[in-house]
Structure formats: C-alpha cells, structure tokens
Design brief:
Layout (H helix, E strand, L loop, with lengths): L1 E3 L6 E3 L16 E2 L9 H42 L3 H31 L12
Antiparallel strand pairs: 1-2, 1-3
Helix pairs in contact: 1-2
The chain binds zinc ion (ZN).
Length: 128
C-alpha cells in the first residue's frame, strides 16, 4: 500500500509514521487509497508520478533482458542444427541477447525521459 507524508510530501511503501520528519515517529502517514485522503492527491502527483514512471521503465528492462535469453538460445540451437560452427552461432546468440537487452534499456530510458518531461523539477514549498 502506498502512503504519503503531508508534511514533507514524500511517498512511502507502507509504514505508520514518516521517517523523514522530526526524526521519525511524530507525523502519521496517510494512506493514498482511503477516500478521505483523496483530496491530497493533486498536490501529491509531483511525488507519486516519477515512482510509477520508474517502475514502468524497470519492468520494461527486466522483461526485455529476460525475454532476450530464450531468443538468443533459440538462435544458437537453430544455427547449430544448420551447421556445426559453435563459435559463430554462440557469438550471434550472445549478440542477440546483448542487443535486445541494450535496446530495452535504451527504450526504457527514452520512455522515462519522455514521461518525466511534464513533471516539474522543483517541489513547491508548502505554507499552510
Ligand atoms: Zn514527512
């Protein structure tokens, strides 16, 4: 469950009190899912959105790097059944794995940068 601190505007994955404010233990964390806390959501967007964007990028990199392994192994075995050149097909298979992984990292970076473009760099000070 995602919680947030109304004092320092940081978001946390669970917990009772904010660890950042006044040495921890004084400011209670609010649950984002509860209806009575939904009114804080517009101002919390600054903190919450990058976390979801980063998670999307991470999932893309993980998915790309894991899925590249069977593709590379498939190309290796497919090539081995055609000819016995182990070195060549191992190099092509490894190259495919590295290529897909590198591509997914590049793509995740690009998507993350595009999504973060509309998020302001600086958080506004809270005076109320
Ligand atoms: Zn706090």
């Amino acid at each position: 469950m995602q919680k947030f601190c109304i004092n320092c505007r940081n978001a946390f994955w669970g917990g009772q009190h904010c660890p950042n404010c006044f040495g921890g233990g004084n400011v209670e964390l609010l649950d984002l899912a509860l209806p009575e806390n939904q009114k804080y959501l517009p101002e919390m967007q600054i903190d919450v959105r990058p976390k979801y964007f980063a998670r999307t990028a991470m999932m893309l990199v993980i998915f790309g790097s894991i899925m590249s392994l069977p593709v590379g192994v498939f190309i290796f075995f497919r090539g081995m059944s055609e000819s016995g050149n182990v070195g060549l097909w191992a190099a092509i298979g490894l190259g495919t794995i590295i290529g897909i992984t590198w591509g997914s990292i590049k793509l995740a970076n690009w998507i993350f940068g595009k999504q973060m473009a509309e998020v302001p760099k600086e958080k506004g000070a809270q005076y109320d």
